[in-house]
Design a protein that fits this description.
Layout lengths: L4 H13 L23 E5 L2 E4 L4 E4 L2 H4 L21 H8 L12 H13 L5 E5 L2 H16 L3 E4 L9 H4 L16 E3 L5 H11 L3 E6 L11 H12 L2 E5 L12 H5 L5 E4 L10 E5 L1 H4 L13 H16 L2 H23 L3 E6 L2 E6 L9 E2 L5 E2 L1 H15 L2 E2 L13 H24 L20
Parallel strand pairs: 3-15, 5-6, 5-7, 7-8, 8-9
Antiparallel strand pairs: 1-2, 2-3, 4-10, 9-10, 11-12, 13-14
Length: about 450
């Protein structure tokens, strides 16, 4: 499509020097309808972004959930007036121009840690790293060192890391020896009896249970509480991965929202509103074992300054309430619209982390021969076309689900719903006719190394 000429030029350039054309699997061009979707972005402003072709979008991907407060004001976008911009974050960062990384610790390391300990129920001490994968690796290392045990229990369908200890559970895990599978075991989410069976089998050799408290599925009544009790009974460390739920479900994360306190927890993404920072936190008697975790950039000052400003915003403003309100407006509006037009689609998950899922009947799930004889499931074609059409109408959405930003206004949500209504009408026409020629981009591809959608 001529609309994405510069995006396509960029992709050709990037593929020559970057595996897959992007540094993150979930941002690759093939995760979207390639050829009919932007590939690269130039800048952001509040709840909006602008691609390399100059097209403006409401960003409902939010940097894979890290841009909870929105993007800083961009000087080239001065015609926009976004009252929810966060200049205080930029101001805090600019104060650090005297240095980024130093030869000794800086005082903001302790200051930010103090604020986190006051905000997160399980936090008594904090260790900073850079990525979510690092933080979860750190939590596992701490748990194993503290308990002297080896086995980790987790949810195979989720995502905790690209690191070997977790990826060994995936059906495909190239580059990882099968021996890793001996020390990590899976149980299904919301199946407490399966976890209890794993505990009985491995008994005193279970070091930790790590899981996201929730993602799209609601925890059954007593599920999280039951995990807490089992970990206490068997002497295992309970770890909550709060990369997504942290600073989104509640100020103190899902552990505050659900009232279940883990032994350790990992946070990242929204904690510094896009600046690269994550951390593991927890009880002091466990965190003393964090001497196994170290890195040159753990105390990098710019990201800590950003986090410091973000925490002040969360403490003084109703950010969480805004996220829930905007999310509920979107989720309820989408489902009402889908019902009104008779579309086989639902917006489920949590209001602050909504997912759009096509609920096609069994006959629709039959593969369609398309693209040189290659079989493409109908729901994949439907999502591909939906993404193509929403982008054309100024909304970015991810096939694995979206995110809500506190920078979004009620008008932004209404506009997104209007765009999605028109897009779904085009999808419905293709479903009714079986003619998918309106899809100009390639069908989206899954990534087996992340999470099962």
């Amino acid at each position: 499509m001529e609309r994405y000429t510069k995006s396509q030029t960029y992709l050709e350039r990037a593929l020559k020097v970057t595996p897959g054309g992007a540094q993150t699997l979930s941002k690759r061009a093939n995760r979207f309808p390639q050829g009919a979707y932007p590939v690269a972005l130039q800048y952001g402003n509040g709840a909006h972004v602008v691609d390399v072709d100059g097209h403006r979008y409401l960003d409902m991907i939010c940097g894979l959930a890290c841009m909870t407060l929105g993007y800083p004001t961009h000087v080239d976008d001065c015609d926009l007036n976004q009252p929810t911009d966060r200049p205080e974050i930029n101001a805090a960062v600019q104060q650090m121009i005297d240095g980024v990384s130093f030869s000794l610790a800086t005082d903001n390391e302790a200051e930010v840690a103090e604020k986190l300990c006051a905000m997160i129920p399980c936090a008594e001490q904090v260790r900073f790293v850079k990525t979510g994968s690092e933080a979860n690796e750190a939590a596992i290392r701490i748990a194993r060192k503290a308990t002297g045990r080896d086995i980790v229990l987790t949810i195979a369908e989720g995502y905790h890391s690209w690191h070997s200890w977790f990826q060994a559970l995936k059906p495909q895990h190239p580059g990882i020896p099968d021996t890793y599978q001996q020390i990590v075991r899976a149980f299904p989410y919301n199946h407490l009896e399966e976890l209890e069976w794993q505990f009985r089998v491995h008994n005193t050799n279970t070091a930790a249970v790590i899981l996201e408290p929730c993602h799209y599925e609601q925890p059954n009544e007593g599920f999280l509480e039951g995990i807490r009790s089992l970990c206490t009974e068997y002497g295992a460390v309970l770890i909550f991965d709060e990369m997504v739920t942290g600073f989104r479900w509640a100020n103190g994360g899902a552990q505050e929202y659900f009232g279940v306190t883990p032994d350790l927890a990992t946070f990242g993404k929204a904690c510094a509103n896009g600046f690269p920072l994550s951390f593991v936190c927890g009880k002091a008697d466990l965190m003393q074992h964090a001497d196994v975790v170290s890195g040159t950039f753990g105390g990098e000052a710019v990201s800590l300054a950003a986090c410091n400003a973000v925490l002040d915003i969360y403490k003084t403003e109703p950010i969480i309430e805004t996220l829930w309100a905007r999310g509920e407006q979107f989720q309820s509006g989408f489902n009402a619209m889908a019902e009104a037009v008779g579309m086989p689609v639902v917006c489920d998950g949590f209001a602050v982390k909504p997912r759009i899922k096509f609920t096609l009947g069994e006959s629709f799930y039959m593969a369609v021969n398309w693209l040189n004889g290659r079989s493409i499931p109908t729901d994949t074609l439907a999502m591909s076309l939906f993404l193509q059409e929403t982008a054309l109408r100024g909304v970015l959405w991810h096939p694995a689900g979206g995110n809500i930003s506190a920078a979004m206004t009620k008008e932004d949500i209404d506009s997104a719903l209007n765009s999605m209504t028109l897009s779904l009408m085009i999808v419905q026409k293709a479903l009714d006719s079986g003619d998918w020629s309106v899809l100009k981009g390639l069908p989206i591809q899954s990534t087996p190394f992340v999470r099962k959608s």
